[in-house]
Amino acid sequence: MMRRRVMLWNLLGIGISVLMLAACNSTDVRQASGKAAANAYSTGDYKIGSEDVLDVIVWKSPDLSKVVSVRPDGKISLPLIGDIVVEGLTVAQVKQDLEARLKEFKESPNVSVVVQQVNSYGIYVLGEVAKPGRYQMKTFTTVLQAISTAGGFTPYAAKNRMFVLRKSSNAGTETRIDVSYDDIISGGGNVSQNILLIPGDTVVVP
For 141, 162, 183, 187, which has the most beta carbons within 10 A of its beta carbon? Predict the structure, then answer.
């Protein structure tokens, strides 16, 4: 009887260990996924988004040059060319596309594209912060910077149970990235949890 109890306890211990390991691995995967997405956004060229303002200059063709806003459908409208999708593209990609399209009307067109205003970098901070809401950022922002922008924590904030909701590539789905305030600020803490936010991220403070 005693031997059976020992075996049962051993099996139970193994089961708990497996579950804990699976949970840790799941968290690690989410953290890595979130970090990779943010790094790809920040280290690559800026991706144009809705409501950004672009200055399109066609060399020696002032009639074709125009300052345009990116519409909610991700497109801009230009003389001769008409509508063109620019959302999610870099400035270099838009320049290349415009020059290819203008070759129908102009020999060796030279186009410059400048982002005059960055209006698409919007994030949300919700829950136990002083000023929850949507914030339009002008530069890359981390979780703690977003909390500071929202006025800091309320006295009731569960700082170590924060998380970031990030839209996945699959439509209608989101990835949850857990964040612990104490882990970030402690001397030997996991600073990597202070992830860089990308447009559309939602920081939730329970």
Answer: 162
CA-closest candidate to residue 19, choices 178, 11, 189:
11
CA angle 175, 178, 182 (to 5 degrees): 160
Last residue of a domain, one of 117, 146, 167: 117
Tell me the HSE value of 59 on the side-chain side, using a 13 A CA sphere.
Answer: 8
Residue where a domain terminates, one of 117, 141, 159: 117
In this prediction the pTM is 0.66
The pLDDT tens digits for 75-86 are 999 999 999 999
Report the CATH number at residue 199. Answer: 3.10.560.10
Range of the domain at 93: 53-117
Do both 58 and 25 map to the same domain? no
Residue 193's pLDDT band (cuts 50, 70, 90): confident
